Amino acid sequence: MTSVPQDYRLPGGGAEISALPKISLHDHLDGGLRTETIIELGLRAGLDLPDLDPAELRSWFKRQANSDSLVEYLKTFELTIAVMQSAENLSRVAREFVQDLGRDGVIWGEVRWAPEQHLRAGLTLDQAVEAVQAGIEDGIDEVRHTTGHRIRVGQLLSAMRQNGDGLEIAELAVRHRNKGVAGFDIAGPEAGFPAKNLQPAFDYLAEHFMPRTVHAGEADGLDSIRGALFDGRALRLGHGVRIAEDIVVDREDAESTYVALGRLSQWVKDREIALELSPTSNLDTNAIAQWGDELVDHPFDLLYQLGFRVTVNTDNRLMSATTLSRELFLLAETFDYDLGDLESFQLNAAAASFLPLEEREELADQIIDGFEGA
Question: Is 218 one of the annotated active-site residues of the chain?
């Protein structure tokens, strides 16, 4: 059983957002399971599940995630990870993940996950990566054969920042770079676990020219972002929303607000370092608490208006009860964005994707063609 994305349209009866070509850069595999699958696999494994009704289980995840705390938010993953410990289950979850992205109009998706969390039943790191890749490829084929939609997906391998220097995962990513892995990430508790702790991994990745993104500026502030850029040499910032702490309102008048950028935010803007913003998730985890607790308070629009390379993402579709189309709809509704704005977000994502230049340009052409026909 699968859930069909809602028919989100631009306010005023505009274009159907789910039909538009989209790019997903920040989407966790263990945060995008179908509740029907969790129940089936969980019962088979003898797990104590919060609820056996798919709809009620979805509600449970949303309640747990909407806790105003990243630490509490991360606890929901204990259940999803528990059903992702065999090659068969990993492949199934990855296949369904791709199918769900395809139905939402995604043409390029980067799915991040931490192989080190999926070894309890005896899989090796390489076997886990191979299982996920098999599921991705099956999902791509099924989407194409059943709908005609063409989607591509690459893996981002995450090292858990609290578990060591990350070198083994960096080596794993490089080992599989021509077999489905597009890049590297670090995830897990941000505060107290700076990027410099994983310096051996980042040095190895730089030596092998492996793309990397770093979770930063979500549960910690500017020092975390600074470390991601200069210790991790990140090409993108996972969330990065708290870069807005380095932007100060200088003065306001009846028509405009004038701001001053600090050196760090100016660097991120000038270097066009992509921000993997996830609006609903940022609300769920209290990442924007200093600005407010509603979407209108999110600094997304400020960053966009100032010319930062903002991208729109879901982070964890299950926990935040969302899709990429829904995130775009909510932003359009809140900030009065039009089709051109949504196209800009997708072109930003295309430019920031971990693909060769020529393939990024092809993505941009697909986006432009798709939006022109909307």
Answer: yes
